[in-house]
Amino acid sequence: MKLFCVHERIEARRKLNSLSKEFFRKTIHICTAFVPLGIHFARIPVVCAVAAAGLFYIVCETLRMRGREIPFISDVTAAAARKRDENKFVLGPVTLVVGIVAASLLWDEVPASIGILALAFGDGLASLAGKTFGMVKIPLTQGKTAAGSLTCFGAIFCSAWLVSRDSFLAMSVAVAGAFIEVLPLKDFDNLLIPVLLGGIAQFV
């Protein structure tokens, strides 16, 4: 009985630690929602600043992998890293930056904003909802949940509609976004979501 209780406590702590890491990661994710506001007022300077931040991260992460810790940056990376990223180059921030920059340069302001907000809220909230409330797993998705997918759909639909005021466009983007999010793409959904959904918003 005591061993069972100890095991339960260890498992509860593990889940809490995993959830806190995910919350921290997705808080950074959701902060990218400020980028559309920036590109509205100063598109090129903001895109350059985001790209520069990405390059700075690559340098810091490369140094970290070689055993040279960078104050604050390495701590943030370690705090946000998933178990699968342990002792590896953490790729998520790189694909996040590339996705945002690509969407900003490829599409007009409104479609680019829709793609970036879909990444910020759709993908960001889906993971949190899945880890917190996800009881029903979707087969062949490496652990994705129905709660996460529904949250992703709702968040993308709402953000796309608020930007475009077009229900058909918002529905199209939300369906595509929920489909992409449920695929086991790991960190590459950060790249595909803003670019592909921005493209859909551009041409629908």
Automatic annotation (TrEMBL):
<feature type="transmembrane region" description="Helical">
    <location>
        <begin position="89"/>
        <end position="107"/>
    </location>
</feature>
<keyword id="KW-0812">Transmembrane</keyword>
<feature type="transmembrane region" description="Helical">
    <location>
        <begin position="145"/>
        <end position="162"/>
    </location>
</feature>
<dbReference type="GO" id="GO:0004143">
    <property type="term" value="F:ATP-dependent diacylglycerol kinase activity"/>
</dbReference>
<keyword id="KW-1133">Transmembrane helix</keyword>
<feature type="transmembrane region" description="Helical">
    <location>
        <begin position="113"/>
        <end position="133"/>
    </location>
</feature>
<protein>
    <submittedName>
        <fullName>Phosphatidate cytidylyltransferase</fullName>
    </submittedName>
</protein>
<keyword id="KW-0472">Membrane</keyword>
<dbReference type="GO" id="GO:0016779">
    <property type="term" value="F:nucleotidyltransferase activity"/>
</dbReference>
<dbReference type="InterPro" id="IPR037997">
    <property type="entry name" value="Dgk1-like"/>
</dbReference>
<feature type="transmembrane region" description="Helical">
    <location>
        <begin position="42"/>
        <end position="60"/>
    </location>
</feature>
<keyword id="KW-0548">Nucleotidyltransferase</keyword>
<keyword id="KW-0808">Transferase</keyword>
